[in-house]
Design goal:
Aminopeptidase
Length: 298
């Protein structure tokens, strides 16, 4: 059950933008007034944290009824808040430092900010992504996020071809690059990776992580044709050995990451920075962007 008196402070702890606090607090009164909504919320939270800590579990939350109005775009936030006691208990059990736990869960607020940027109002554009944070699968360690994951078939084949004894399904750490976190400098990346080595060895000692991996348009080697030699993005690429590259284009990925909305028309995209110019001009010239897949030894 949501504790309305504590809700504003809890939302602030999750980095929810100040401008959204009053609306979220006001709408939360519906859970006290409508028992069926309260039951749906509690059931959703239970499903979210069931078997918390398991890797690769994708819980399907109950469908929302029609007619919720503004509550619909905020419902995943209330589920996260309702699940918070279970998440914090899991963090304590694993000995996760408070500052790392707080920064990890604060990604909720960052995604609300992304929704503001994309839609002009608060909400969550990709609520399923936040399930990783509230199930203990992903952690913010400096500039990068690290997800407890498993090697796939194609990546493991590429690593084995390079001479390492690995198999599909072996634990690996997937790297993610959140927005609103400052420059992606080589020093910041090196610091994050060093933190990850120590963090997972200490808090998940039963899981041996030998490989770091990334699956992102930032690993598309075509970026080398468009960015300056000392670009931070190219420095990030240099961390990885290539596993493979997708065959199908993923043009919306860079548009969404760089400009905030994957549906924006390419012809009207700004070209104020080197990355903006690289993404836009390549598309305007008839090119496509692809997801790259890379790995490195931890």
């Amino acid at each position: 059950m949501l504790l309305l008196d504590d809700l504003p402070e809890t939302l602030l702890d999750l980095a929810v933008p100040h401008e959204d606090i009053n609306e979220l607090t006001s709408l939360a009164a519906r859970f006290a007034a409508e028992p069926e909504l309260a039951e749906l919320l509690e059931r959703s939270a239970r499903i979210l944290v069931h078997d918390i800590g398991a890797v690769g579990v994708h819980p399907e939350l109950p469908a929302l009824p029609e007619g919720l109005g503004d509550l619909e775009r905020w419902f995943p936030v209330y589920v996260a808040v309702a699940a918070l006691p279970h998440v914090r208990a899991y963090h304590r059990e694993r000995g996760i430092p408070e500052d790392i736990a707080r920064r990890t869960l604060a990604d909720l607020g960052r995604h609300i900010a992304l929704h503001h940027r994309r839609r002009g109002i608060g909400g969550l554009a990709v609520p399923g992504w936040l399930r990783l944070h509230f199930r203990g699968e992903i952690y913010q360690l400096g500039r990068l996020q690290f997800q407890r994951s498993r090697l796939g078939e194609r990546t493991s084949r590429a690593i084995a071809a390079a001479g390492l004894d690995v198999e599909p399904g072996e634990p690996c750490l997937d790297l993610h690059i959140p927005d609103y976190q400052g420059p992606l400098t080589p020093a910041a990346c090196a610091d994050s990776i060093d933190r990850a080595r120590r963090f997972f060895a200490r808090h998940f000692p039963e899981e041996r992580y030998r490989i770091g991996a990334c699956h992102s348009w930032l690993l598309d080697d075509q970026l080398r044709d468009h960015l300056p030699e000392h670009s931070n993005i190219l420095g990030f690429q240099d961390l990885f050995r290539t596993a493979y590259k997708d065959d199908e284009p993923s043009d919306r990925e860079p548009v969404g990451f760089v400009f905030g909305d994957p549906e924006l028309p390419v012809a009207g995209l700004p070209q104020d920075t080197a990355v903006q110019r690289a993404v836009t001009r390549h598309l305007l010239d008839g090119g496509h962007w692809y997801l790259g897949h890379g790995w490195f030894e931890l």
